[in-house]
Amino acid sequence: MSMQPVTMSDKKDDDGDVGVVLETRQKTQKPPMYKVMILNDDYTPMEFVVHVLERFFGMTHAQAFELMLTVHKKGLAVVGVFSFEVAETKVTQVMDFAQRHQHPLQCTMEKE
Ligand code: TYC
Questions:
Q1: Cα-Cα-Cα-Cα dihedral sign, residues 42, 46, 52, 54
Q2: 34 and 82 in contact (C-beta within 8 Å)?
Q3: How far is CA 42 from CA 13, 15, 20, 104, 106, in A?
Q4: Which residues line ligand 1 (CB under 6 A)?
Q5: pLDDT tens digits along 5-46
Q6: Relative to the CA of 38, which ligand 1 atom is closest?
Q7: From the CB of residue 71, how many other CB atoms can be counted at a distance below 10 Å?
Q8: Greatest CA span in the chain, whole angstroms?
Q9: Does the predicted model carry a pTM greater than 0.85?
Q10: pLDDT (mean) for 82-107
Q11: Which of 36, 41, 52, 65 for a ligand 1 pocket mutation test, highest count of atoms within 8 Å of Cβ?
């Protein structure tokens, strides 16, 4: 019985095929983002809301005044979209500040 050397042509995978990429979808996920909203009420002074928007959301006086009026007319508005931790911090800061000034202003967050 004669032994033959194993040659390339004997190998199962030597079919000339190359590694074809069948799956290009990225498996990584974008972190979820959260909308921070303020709600209208009948008692919080307009100027207080304007001040909150300037102080905690970096708005100019004109931007803050316009958004405050939107909330006053429509009932609520999104004031920004942030990562969970930043959104949570903004909500806490606004709620603490409103409570310290004894205004019933409400600020909430919701997954986008
Ligand atoms: N509605 C309030 C008023 O007439 C003003 C106000 C605006 C309160 C926006 C809350 O999120 C608010 N004094």
A1: positive
A2: yes
A3: 76, 77, 64, 9, 12
A4: 38-42, 44-46, 49, 68, 71-72, 105
A5: 554 445 455 556 566 666 777 788 999 999 999 999 999 999
A6: 11
A7: 22
A8: 102
A9: no
A10: 98
A11: 41
The tokens of 42 are what? 């009948």
Q: Residue 39: how many CB atoms within 10 A of its CB?
A: 14
Question: What are phi and psi for residue 53, nearest 5 degrees?
Answer: -70, -35
- What gap in Å lies between CA 69 and CA 65, rounded to an integer? 6
pLDDT at 76 over 60: yes
User: SS in 3 state form for 33-63?
Assistant: CEEEEEECCCCCCHHHHHHHHHHHHCCCHHH
Higher pLDDT, 1 or 109: 109
Token digits for 56? 């905690």
What tokens appear for 79 in the block?
């004031």
